[in-house]
TrEMBL record:
Homology family: Belongs to the flavin oxidoreductase frp family.
Organism: Amphritea balenae
GO molecular function term, any single one: FMN reductase (NADPH) activity
Residue ranges of domain Nitroreductase in the record: 10-163
This protein's name: Oxygen-insensitive NADPH nitroreductase
Pfam families attached to this UniProt entry: Nitroreductase
Source organism superkingdom: Bacteria
Keywords: Flavoprotein, FMN, NADP, Oxidoreductase
InterPro entries: Flavin_OxRdtase_Frp, Nitroreductase, Nitroreductase-like
SUPFAM superfamilies: FMN-dependent nitroreductase-like
Enzyme Commission designation: 1.5.1.38
Length: 245
């Protein structure tokens, strides 16, 4: 155990922020930390849009299902998977990009995830809090138009940043023995282990909500994964030049 691991293990989603502004120099530093993350074949396929305009913030809040902190957080960033810049690189060398491959979609999206995690950990190391906003994909076409995103660019998620005005408990994660397998995928003991883990998640929710929410992890997953999951995404991504091959 060291300070880095302790910081990683203490991550919480922060949804309430103080009014203290975050200096632009700090935001620039966080983006640079994001850029230092691993990137597949050096494609560097993440673009960050810092949204300052209050009207755009209000619309993004609507797109994300009315999550108030999207409009209230001192900083709101939208992280995009961006192959347009790589297309430009090809054009600069008199070459035509062979785009639309599913592999390109995967590598660009993974790049965004790695970038975001670096950025978030860096933010937390400076005393900031953050929460990811996947809800912007509820109305992803509207978000893309609002941010004037070209083809071959799509918004993956947003991040609210600011100085925390709350101190929530750390949400318990799945036991390592469920996640870490040796040599092959063996889940023979997972059901029993998850049943035990469910108790800790239920206790967490009851404590966090003062008894208003009592749900296990498996109940949460079974409630979520038996419903449609943004069925508009496939058509949107194809329209943007992804998942064509």
């Amino acid at each position: 155990m060291n300070q880095v691991i302790e910081l990683l293990n203490s991550h919480r989603s922060i949804r309430k922020f103080t009014y203290q502004p975050v200096a632009q120099e700090i935001i620039n530093t966080l983006v640079q930390a994001g850029q230092a993350a691993a990137t597949s074949s050096f494609i560097q396929a993440c673009t960050v849009i810092q949204v300052n305009d209050s009207n755009k913030r209000s619309q993004l809040m609507e797109c994300s299902g009315g999550q108030a902190y999207v409009g209230e957080a001192p900083v709101f960033l939208v992280l995009c998977a961006d192959m347009q810049r790589n297309k430009l690189a090809c054009e600069m060398n008199d070459a035509e990009i062979n785009s639309g491959y599913t592999e390109q979609f995967i590598t660009a999206t993974v790049d965004v995830g790695l970038f975001a995690q670096n950025l978030t950990v860096a933010a937390e190391s400076l005393g900031l809090g953050a929460v990811y906003i996947g809800g912007i994909r509820n109305q992803i076409a509207r978000v893309a138009d609002l941010l004037e995103l070209p083809d071959m660019v799509y918004p993956v998620f947003g991040i609210c940043l600011g100085y925390p005005d709350q101190n929530p408990e750390v949400k318990p994660r799945l036991p390592v023995e469920v996640v870490l397998k040796q040599d092959s995928y063996n889940d023979s003991n997972d059901q029993q282990t998850i049943a035990e883990y469910d108790k800790s998640v239920s206790d967490y929710y009851r404590t966090r909500t003062g008894g208003n929410k009592d749900m296990t992890w498996s109940e949460q997953m079974s409630g979520m994964l038996t419903k449609e999951a943004r069925p508009h995404m496939k058509a949107f991504l194809k329209d943007r030049g992804f998942l064509l091959k």
